Amino acid sequence: RPCVVIAGGASGIGRATSLRLAAWAEVTNLDLVPPEPRGVADIVVDLRDDRAVGRVVAELPHTISGLVYSAGLAGTDDAGEVMWVNVVAFVRLLRRILPRMVPGAAIVVLGSISTSRHGVADSDLRALLDSTSLERSRAWAQSHSVGPVQAYTLSKYLVDELTVELAAILHPRQIRINCVKPGPVTTSLLPRFRESMGAKRIDTAEQVLGRHARADEIAAVIEFLLTESAAWVNGTRIQVDGGLGASLRARGG
Ligand code: NAI
Predict the structure, then answer these.
(1) Mean pLDDT, rounded, for 196-217
(2) Is the CB of residue 14 below 6 angstroms from any atom belonging to ligand 1?
(3) Which of 99, 128, 160, 216 is the most exposed place for a label (fewest CB within 10 A)?
(4) Under CATH, domain 3-185+214-242 is a member of which superfamily?
(5) Biggest CA-to-CA distance, the chain
């Protein structure tokens, strides 16, 4: 069975993905907390601790067919932490896992419909991605006056950009990467988005669509992207928002 690693697999979208994949893959969840209820393999690790991540990767299977990066923080935490967990730790984990990824492997990273560059220059974004520790990511956020809410949308902007950049780099190795961009999903992060982005934004999404997404509706798309059926889907950013973006645009919002 193919081995798939899920970062952030203990809850929400990562957990829903893990449950789906268990039907056909050996899933290894990396998370701060073990998944509840237990049932699939898991390794408890704090992605903020870069050395610990290095140790954990050494324990992973030698051939890996898939990586899902679903670990994430909303804009309620420290800005440097948001940048680190949402994007820098993804790049660092991927670099470590890549030597084990086999031709035909696929990567899916969680973006968001909410992205913004906040006018940060390319060279500054590059410097952030080269951060080697959470402390440096914190210092970066401070020196660029990036607060937690901006950090969230900036981290997701970077995930969008990296998806395209990495697809071109990884294509010769026959490894695909795609980004899934949800609108509001009913998970433990939703109350935090309400806090950071404002209740109006989250409530409007519910009014327009009648409800928020269920985690499994996002997981279904992630699962597809990991399979052979998606062999020709590469370097894309797929919005999975139930039509929220389209409806808001039609309303002029
Ligand atoms: P969630 O909170 O249910 O899952 C995130 C997981 O990441 C948790 O299991 C958490 O323990 C783990 N995590 C956080 N920090 C960690 C760390 N330092 N080390 C190890 N694991 C850590 O949230 P959800 O909603 O499933 O989020 C998954 C992804 O989807 C995130 O990237 C989020 O930004 C994105 N997303 C979610 C939306 C929503 O409305 N829920 C909307 C748009 C994007």
Answers:
(1) 95
(2) yes
(3) 99
(4) NAD(P)-binding Rossmann-like Domain (3.40.50.720)
(5) 51
The answer to whether the CB of 72 falls within 8 A of the CB of 8 is yes
Smallest CA-to-CA distance from 112 within 167, 160, 77 is with 160
Q: Ligand 1: distance of its center to the CA of 14 in Å?
A: 7
Pairing of strands 26-31, 41-44: parallel
Domains of the chain: which residue ranges? 3-185+214-242
Nearest to 173 by CA among 71, 112, 100, 121: 100
Q: What confidence tens digit (pLDDT) does each residue in 41-83 have?
A: 589 999 999 999 999 999 999 999 999 999 999 998 899 999 9
ipTM above 0.90, yes or no: yes
Determine whether the shortest distance from the Cβ of 110 to ligand 1 is under 6 A: yes
**Nearest CA, atom 29, ligand 1:** 70
Give the residue from 66, 72, 104, 109 showing the smallest Cα distance to 91: 109
Q: Cβ(89)–Cβ(206) under 8 Å? A: no
Q: Is 185 in the pocket of ligand 1 (CB under 6 A)?
A: yes
Mean per-residue pLDDT for 185-205? 94
Give 8-30 pLDDT, tens digit per residue: 999 999 999 999 999 999 999 99
Asked if the model's pLDDT at residue 222 lies above 90, the reply is: yes
